[in-house]
Design brief:
Layout: H1 3-20, H2 25-35, H3 40-49, H4 57-66, H5 68-82, E1 112-118, E2 121-124, E3 128-129, E4 132-140, E5 146-152, E6 161-166, E7 171-178, E8 181-186, E9 198-203
Parallel strand pairs: 1-4, 3-9
Antiparallel strand pairs: 1-2, 4-7, 5-6, 5-8, 8-9
């Protein structure tokens, strides 16, 4: 056998011996360190937190920071700090929406009045009506004939309108534009006004 093949054989045998040799104490330490999970320190810290009587002052402070309840409170505080505030310092969280109240309906104009005649009086269904086109209904509830005259109180000779004479149980209805003011109503048959057949109507 020549020198070169002998040298090659010696190298191969040496490599085989090294690969098959058992690991020493130092090699086992290195392998254990490389195979240990990265959370080994965290597990040890958790075990120390589970044993209060074995904690140091620094470990107790660190464990207090690790409690789930404290972590939850910290997250809630950070969420409140990051939530944008509404104008005026109020929370921006929208509350229940209240629909706007609808405006009250406009009052219906009161432009109708009924006048009932008897011996000897005039009775109005209402003392006040709204100005505009007013409807007046005359009904003779008495036994004698009666009529009706309507004129402004400050100018009784200027008739606004009038009703003809009605017999007992007759009625009539008429419409007339009346301006705001006070009006007088009376029966113009002889002696009837003096006996009490007169009244007033306010037009507003």
């Amino acid at each position: 056998m020549t020198a070169a093949p002998a040298a090659v054989l010696a190298v191969v045998l040496a490599v085989g011996v090294l690969l098959g040799a058992p690991a020493g104490p130092q090699d086992r330490d290195v392998q254990a360190a490389s195979l240990s999970p990265p959370s080994a320190h965290a597990g040890a810290r958790t075990r120390r937190c589970a044993l209060p009587h074995r904690r140091t002052r620094r470990e107790r402070a660190r464990c207090a920071r690790l409690t789930p309840r404290r972590a939850a409170r910290t997250r809630e505080t950070l969420a409140d700090m990051l939530r944008p505030a509404a104008p005026g310092g109020r929370s921006s969280t929208p509350g229940p929406v209240t629909p706007p109240a609808s405006p009250p309906p406009a009052p219906t104009p009161q432009r109708n009045v009924s006048v009932t005649t008897r011996e000897f009086s005039l009775q109005l269904s209402r003392p006040v009506v709204d100005h505009g086109r007013v409807g007046v209904q005359l009904r003779n509830a008495g036994e004698d004939p009666h009529n009706l005259q309507i004129a402004p109180e400050d100018s009784p000779l200027d008739l606004a309108f009038s009703f003809p004479t009605l017999l007992s149980d007759e009625s009539d209805r008429r419409f007339q534009d009346l301006a705001p003011g006070r009006y007088v109503l009376w029966c113009s048959l002889e002696g009837h006004e003096a006996l009490g057949m007169h009244t007033t109507l306010d037009v507003r």
